Every structure is written in structure tokens, then in C-alpha cells.
């Protein structure tokens, strides 16, 4: 996918709930208000956001935890993606 | 169209959902809460917005992804346009 | 009309929807949520607004696009005027 | 009346809707959501308001336009007054 | 009363609506949304409030006008008091 | 109790409404919207809170007045405590 | 668990309400609006959050009190965790 997020935005790709991370982390896909795990597929350049300097801490390939309902979802070639602000990402799961 | 957006505003022209971008990006036109793709047709000069310096990162011709319902829509000669703040633009699609 | 807007305020005069701008820009008068076109008739001096320095970018005679429902309407000698903050103005139409 | 507004506050006295300003400005008294005209009768000293330096631009005797429902009304000896922040004043009418 | 308001807070004591100030200022006690007059009985030291330096402009004995419903009311020995931020005080009545 | 409030937080212990302060201050326990009196039992270190430097002005043993419904209540060994931000404290009662 | 909170975020593990802290602190698990106790299991690096420098004051192993309903809950291998901002933590219990 050739998408360049602006500023502090990050594109993530849904991680199947069957898929375990190295730490054995599983989130039931039916958990409505629970944070979501996803794999980072594109990262904005950071820079000045709302007059404040933002450094990007996540990188492509990171599996991250983010609050469900943050960001906007879209589809490319049948795959579901979400575009988030980095500040919506809670943690990196290793 | 001869419209000069002020400050950090950007005018975009709706991209038909039948139209594929280079990356094969398609958004079903019926997807109500999904981000929209559009082509930039006019870009404001940037400058000080709410006391913060804004540099314009998008340029005329860019295909961008923006959150539906941001901005204001208007029509010129039957074509639909939307005027957005640059910060409402999520990503550039290539 | 002898009205001096304070700070970053601008007085605009409703442009009839029958009236075309140079760019052929027309807004149906019934379009409720659409931006409005209007002609600038008075411009405040700018200066410090909410602790931030504001420079006025519009001038008397400009035809501008602004989000409907921003500003306050009033009447003088039967003509309808609207008083806006400059930041409510989306673009200059030429 | 011996009332000293604090900071950026201004006391205005209702202008009768029958009374014309020099510019022929009339506001029907029944216009509920329209801006109000009033004569300034007391002006605060300005100074630091919410951490920002405010200079007073209106003076006693000015006829001003302000958004209805801003400020607080009170009565002295049967006359109605309103106390506003200067930022609620839209324009000076001459 | 031995009460020391913190920061920019001020304790005021209800002025009987029968009581006239020097300027003949009267507020009917039934006026629900009108500003209230009250006598200042304790004044905080000012200082840094929300990161901004606040200087106290009112002093004990001042009769002040404040917007009803601002502040918190309490009783000591049957008398009613209100504790306000100085910024809730509209004017000093003399 | 061995509880260390973080930043600008303060732990207070409910003062029985039967208990008089030195100034004869009494608050009927049924007064729902009235400020509450309480004795300070733990004080945070202050420091940078929301990017602003906060100095603690209250100390253990102070009887304070705070707006009801601010803070969070908890129980230890049957006693009721409330944890507040210092900015929720209106005054020190002596 | 191998989870790295970003910025000022902290992962905490629910403390059983049967479990007493050293200070004898107990929170009935049915108390809906009461603060929660939990043990810190991961701490973000702090740094610039919303343009303000944040220093982490809690460390792994601390038992903390936080306002219920702050943060996001998730499960790993059947254990329940919550991810919070440090500013949602009210106090350290010892």
C-alpha cells in the first residue's frame, strides 16, 4: 500500500485475534470496549502538531495496542486498516 | 475555479469511488463513517493559525484521505468541493 | 454604513444567490448547511486576539466563503449584514 | 452610576430601538437572536485577563454592537444595564 | 469569621436587597438570573493560578457585583457566605 | 494511613458536622450542594502539573473547605477519606 | 508480559480486594464509584506529552490508587490489566 500519513498519524493493520504475539497476548475479537492490537504499516514524519513538536516512537512492523474507536478505518483491496494519531497508541507489544 | 483558501485551508474535489488510485485504493461510496479520498484543487498559504505556525504539506493534485464530515461542502458549476483544514487530512495516497 | 468592527471581526453583506462571481461560483440559497458567499464591507484592525497576534487577510470588496451559522446577523436600512471573526472565513472567491 | 468594572469588563446601557445612530442603524427590539446596540457607560481598566494582556478599545459614550445573551443584565434606579467582557463587543457604531 | 481563601478566591457576604449602596444600587432579591451584590469579607493572596499570575483587585469591605450561581455558598452562625474566584466578580460598586 | 498522594493531590478526612472548628464553623451534613469541611491527612509533593508548577499551600492538620463532589472518596479501616487536587480546596478554616 | 507503554502510560494489574496492603487498605470490590487499587507492572518512559515534559513518578511494583473508569482494560493469559496515564493515578499506597 502506498499511503503516506501526515504529521503524527500512523496506519495500522488489524491483527487477527487468533494470532498470538510473542508475549502470548490475545484479545477476543468480540471484546467491544477493549484496546485493539494491530501491526503498524505506515508512519507519518512527526513534526509540529498543534504547535508542539512530536517525535515518532513507533515504527513499521511494531505490534501496538490502541483504544478501540480511536482513529478512522478504511479498506484497501479487502484488507482493513486504521489511521490513528500516535497519541492514540497505548503501548508496543513485543 | 478561482478560489483562494485562507490560512491552513485546502479545497478538495471528490474522487469518484470507481476511480482507482495508483495503489489500488478504493473506498465504497456508501461507506458512511469511512475516510474519503479527494484530489486537492487549492491550498491556502499556511502561516499563523490560532497563534501557531502552520506549514502546508499538501499540494495541488495530491490525492488525500480525510475524515468524512470534516470541512464544509459547496458546489461550483455542478461539481462538489469540500474545504478542509490541513489538519483534517489524514494521509496522502500515491 | 459606519460600523467599525473590533479586533479580528469582519462585516459582510449577503451576496444574492442569483449573482455570479467571476469564477461562476453559485450557491443555491436553499442550501442550509453549505458555506455562504458574501462581500466584505468592513474589516477590523486585527491585533491581539485571545493573546495571539492576528493579521487581517481580507479587505473591503472581497467576496468570501464562510460557514453558514458562524457570526451574528443584523440589519441596517433593510439590508442584511453578518459580523464574523476572520477565522470563520474559509476562502476568498475571485 | 458609580460602578467600576473589573479587568476587561464594560457596562453598557440599552439603546432604545426607536433611537437612530448617526449611520441610521436600527435594530427591531423584537429581534431575538440579533446583536444589540448599547451605549457604553463604564469601562474596566483592562490588564492581564486569563494571563493575557488586554487593552481597552471602547470608551464611555461609544455605541456598540454586541451579541445578545452575552453578559449579565442588572437594573439601577429603573434603568437596565448590561455588563460584558470587551471581547463580547462586536463593533463600534458611529 | 476566620477563613483564609486560597489563591484567587474571595469570600463575600450577601447584601440585603433592602440595603442601598452609595450609588443607589438595588437588586430585587427575586431576580433569578441577575448579578448579585455582596460585601467582601475575606480575600485570598492571589499568586499563580492555573500557571498565570493573579493580582487581587478587590479588598475587604468592597461591595461587588457577581454573576449569580458562580461560587459556592456556605453558612457560618446563620449568616450566608459565598466563596468565589476573583474572576467571577464583575464590578466594584461604590 | 500510609498513602502518598501524587503531584498536587491532597487526602482529607471527613470532619463530623457535630464538630465545631475554632471559628464556630458548622456545616449541616444534609446540605447537599454546600462546600464540605475536612481535615488534611496527606499532601502530595506538588511540582509540575499539566506543565505548570504547583506549590502546595495546605499542610497536614489544616481544616479545609472544598466543593462537594470534587475528588474521589475511599475507605480505610472504616474511615472515609477523599482525595482532591489542591485546586479543589476553596479555603483554610482556622 | 512484554508490553512497553508509550510516553506517560502505565500498566497496572488488578489487586484482589481480599488482599491487604501494608497499611491495611481495603476496597470492597463492589464499590462502583470508588478509586481502585492496583499493582504497577509496566511504566512508560515519560517524555514530552502534549508538549509538556512528564517525569514518571511511579515504578514497577508500586501499589497505586486510581479513579475507576480511567484507562483501558485488557486481558493477557486470563489476567486483567489496565493501561492508564500517570496523571490518572491518585496516590501510591505503602
TrEMBL record, chains A, B, C, D, E, F, G:
| Gene3D superfamilies per the UniProt record, alphabetical | GroES chaperonin
Q: What InterPro entries does the annotation carry?
A: Chaperonin_GroES, Chaperonin_GroES_sf, Chaprnonin_Cpn10_CS, GroES-like_sf
For molecular function, the Gene Ontology terms on record are:
ATP binding; metal ion binding; protein folding chaperone; protein-folding chaperone binding; unfolded protein binding
Mind naming one GO cellular-component term on file for this protein? Answer: cytoplasm
User: Which Pfam families does this entry report, sorted A to Z?
Assistant: Cpn10
Give the UniProt subcellular location, in the record's own words. Answer: Cytoplasm
Q: Which UniProt keywords apply?
A: Chaperone, Cytoplasm
Q: Which HAMAP family match?
A: CH10
| Family affiliation | Belongs to the GroES chaperonin family.
For this entry, the protein name equals Co-chaperonin GroES
Origin species, per record, is Candidatus Borkfalkia ceftriaxoniphila
* Gene this chain is encoded by: groES
Amino acid at each position: 500500500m502506498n499511503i503516506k500519513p501526515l504529521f503524527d498519524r500512523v496506519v495500522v493493520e488489524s491483527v487477527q485475534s487468533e494470532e498470538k504475539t510473542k508475549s502470548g497476548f490475545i484479545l477476543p475479537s468480540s471484546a467491544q470496549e477493549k484496546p485493539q492490537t494491530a501491526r503498524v504499516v505506515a508512519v507519518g514524519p512527526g513534526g509540529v502538531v498543534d504547535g508542539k513538536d512530536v517525535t515518532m516512537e513507533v515504527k513499521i512492523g511494531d505490534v501496538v495496542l490502541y483504544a478501540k474507536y480511536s482513529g478512522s478505518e478504511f479498506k484497501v483491496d479487502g484488507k482493513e486498516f486504521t489511521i490513528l494519531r500516535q497519541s492514540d497508541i497505548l503501548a508496543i507489544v513485543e
